[in-house]
Each structure stands twice: as C-alpha cells, then as structure tokens.
Design brief:
two-stranded antiparallel ribbon; alpha/beta
Length: 297
Amino acid sequence: MDRHQGMADAGRDEIAGMVLGAWDAFLAQAEQVELSRPSRLRGWRAQEICVHLGCWDDHTALADLIASARDGGAGTPPDVDAVNARVTAAHRDAPREEVVAALQRNRDATADYLAKEPVELDTAPTVSVVGSIPLLSVVLGQAYELAVHGLDLVSCGAAPPPPDVLQSGLAALADVTGALAASMAISGGVTLATPEGGWAFASAADGWTVRRVAPDAFTGPAVEAPADLLLEAASGRINPVPAVARRRLKVHDVGGLLQLAPIVQAVPGIPGGPILQLAARTVGGAGGMLGRLFRKG
C-alpha cells in the first residue's frame, strides 16, 4: 500500500513555488521596513524578527535539518526559545545589509535544497521544533513562519503579505498538522477555510493528504475566517475567543477537531494550538491543552 505524504505528493515544483514565493515576499518587506521599529512581539523589533529567520555562521537551521534527515531523524527537538534568544542577541546590532543578506542566504539554501538534494530526502524524517516529521513538510513549514512573521512586520509599518503567501502559510499549517496526526496514527482531518478558499488535511492509516478547498466547499471539522485571522489565531498572535464572539472566526464540528487531542501529550508545540484550545473549552474540556508552534519564532 502506497503511503501518502501530504504536500510531498504534489511534488517539489509545487512546494518550491509556495515556499520561495513566501521568501520573496518577506524579503521585499524586510528591504522596506525600518528595522529599529518595535513590533507587536514583546521585546522584539523588526530587527529581531528578521535576524532569527536568517542564515548566519552561528545559525544554519536548514543545513541542520538536512543533516538530521540524512542521519535518519535521530536526536531531540531544539529549544526554539533558547535558539532565538542566542541568535537575536548575537546579531541585534547587525546593519541592514547584513540582515537582508542573511535572509537571502536562507532563501537560497531552500532553493538549493529543492533543486539539488536527492528527492528521497523529502520524505525522510528530520527533527524539527515539533518533533520528527518529513523534511519536505518542514521546508514547506517555512511558508507558515514567513506568513506569520510577515504579519508581525505590519506592526512595524510594512505592507501586508500578499494573499497567495497567506494561502501558502495555511497549506503549510495543514501539512505539518497532518504529518503529526499521521505519525500518531490518528484518523481525522480539518479544513482551514477562508473566503478565497482554503486547505484541508486528512490523516488515516495510509498517511495523510492535503488538498486545496474551493470557497464554501468544505464539510466536517473546519475553522473558518479570513486567511490573516486564521494564521494569527493559529500562531497565538490573537485570542480567538473574541473573534468567535464577533462571528469573524467560526468553528465547525468541534467534536471532529478534538479527535486531534491525543497529539497534545506527545507534541505540546503543535501548530494551531490556540484554535484547538478554543474547541476544548467549547465542549467543556481542559484549557491549555496545546501550545504554539513557533512561539515568537
């Protein structure tokens, strides 16, 4: 029986367009924003947001992930808060040209992986901040991080990320969540629905699938909101409760969403945590069951 591997089933060309497009959009924001401007993230300026996404001599995240995949995914997940603190402290005074160059290096490293590394590595497990998942899912996960941090830069005066970047971020969110569900043999799925359409994952015994969903064409468990609001709720940037009260965010089939709850014990940093916390509270479950994927990062 062939095993489904989420967005990897679509092939590298599809992934490359999404993740490299997200990099290009973020680089455009970084080149225009004033890096000394404070952001909505406590203690972080635009400088720290951009610095921790860069590739530096002392911070080569993608190379480390590739090495982990080559070694069979052994090891323990990095402490993302400790890593972010170290990198931002080391480069907090770096001039703009160095910060932009570090971002470009990370974008180029991603492009090089997609163009040159053996395709067999795509489905090899690697140790990420949320545990062991396929390398290509982690590479696409950059689109989620870039979309969320692109929204963070808006608080520093940057233009908003383009709609296609927000959709790529949602695709990455669906893919990583599906990968984690599949790794724990959880059968279920969720649609991330927006007025422009969205993305759905389904996890089963034969792996997980991710598919694009047309506007108003979803059934079953779903979270529905504008794309930027979904990303901000999933990343913990906003409290989803007021958005639900105002009907800007709608949760469909709460019981179906809670089928993903067993992931909590194994992966406290699962993406989309605040939304599932909301679902748990809605049915009287324990609050605080899930955390955020990237915290600040």
